[in-house]
Amino acid sequence: MNQRRWGAILSYVNIVATVVVGLLYTPIMLRLLGQSEYGLYSLIGSVVGYLSVLDMGLGNTIVRYTAKNRVDGTEQKEAELNGLFLQVYSVIGVITFVAGAVLYANIDALFGATLTSGEMQRARIMMILLIFNFALSFPLSIFASILQAYEKFIFLRVTNILRVLLNPLLVLPFLFWGYGSVMMVVVSTILNFACLFANWFYCVHYLHVKFARGKYESVFLREIAAYSFCIFLNAIMDKVYWGTGQFVLGIVSGTVEVAIYAIAMQFMMMDMNFSGAISGVMLPKVTMMVTKHATAKELTDLMIRIGRLQYLVVGYLFVMFALVGREFIALWAGPSYLEAYPIVLLLMGALLIPLVQNVGIAILQAMNLNRYRMTAYTICAMLALAASFPLAVHFGGLGCAVATASSLFISTGYIMNRYYARRIHLDIWRFWRNILSMSKGLLLLGIAAFSLQEYMALSISWLHFFELVVLDTVLYIVIMYFIGMNASEKGLVRNILRKLRR
Length: 502
Prior knowledge:
Layout: H1 3-33, H2 35-49, H3 58-72, H4 75-105, H5 107-111, H6 117-140, H7 142-149, H8 153-176, H9 181-205, H10 218-252, H11 255-282, H12 284-291, H13 296-332, H14 340-356, H15 359-366, H16 370-395, H17 397-422, H18 428-455, H19 462-484, H20 487-501
Helix pairs in contact: 1-2, 1-8, 1-11, 2-6, 2-9, 2-10, 2-11, 3-4, 3-7, 4-6, 6-9, 7-9, 8-9, 10-11, 10-16, 10-17, 11-13, 11-14, 12-15, 13-14, 13-18, 13-19, 14-17, 16-17, 18-19
């Protein structure tokens, strides 16, 4: 069985399953939990989730060096590598427990002003469970990395899909019986350990993975540290951008604001998952071109070609949310979450830049120039975190979104485009002229859709929502085909239609 092919297919199945389960499970869970309880659950998950950055990028490091050893190493060398990483992960597990204990000891100082006594009690229980979850997960997570290095993608993806499907199936009965957020953490912890032990069992009994002590030169250890550092910075950046809002709002506002922001983050994760799936299919070609010493013009042409296709997808998601997002939130999550609409709209707009030009990231990685990007992103993310506190005090969740969006515009819109132009010599102006030329279609769609919606001013219902989605989608396809697409893209559409007719 082709592990890579089926692994790729199952990756997309996992994405679809995650989105579908989220869409079906979340509204039921929200109504059973209540806004405050969901906010508490999101808050504690976000706070303790910061401990995940202690991974230090070692997961990817294990994959790289284990895979490399399988090509030019020995079984004894692999056993020594496994032993080294297990030791490091065990130390990280201890550090995680200590850091978690410090967080637990300061929970009153962090959230005592915004949480009730009952919420504080449940927060402590959830925090203890999650700290133990993270601390014990680190040593066991080595087995998932080994499976990836051995290209056992089917087992890994199927395990993830089962976890996605089983979590709501196990949680919902307890919610119907009156249990709250604490039970949700208990179930997710049990599922996590079940997956970790499944990975361990497969590695030990089928791959016969062994562990041994070995001696390593400082040069090798520095090489591992340097490789892990960039991945570590990426983890910090992601956590600050997409996990900071709940933390900040938990300190200055309370669980209701946290709940609204958490719903907004769900939409953002869906947006990034869909766009990542599209680009992931094409990005391997970038590495091949860079390896063959492609010119800056050739790389720019590829970036434009993929960027335009990406823009058709993310532009559709953005404009559709702008047109019907408010109705969807009211129907799906409830009217009490409508404040999430401007938050999502602002962040989706800011994300258009990095999502459209994410081929540039692949170019940097292929050229081993990713360190500059990660350093710039991390600095901007830290500045966003600092700005979030005063903005959240005055504007709530929208203030946090403004801080994040501003940071994304500066880092991806200015700093990285400048770097692409000056360091890699990409014709970034030509790239953005091509992208912006497609925006007139989106503008025309917005005008047409808003005009039609005035005549379709019906009461909010699922029927009305789907009518608007169908109408706006048809308008988008027609307008972008005749106004937004170039000849090559129109030809691609016609080829797809011809294949579908056969």
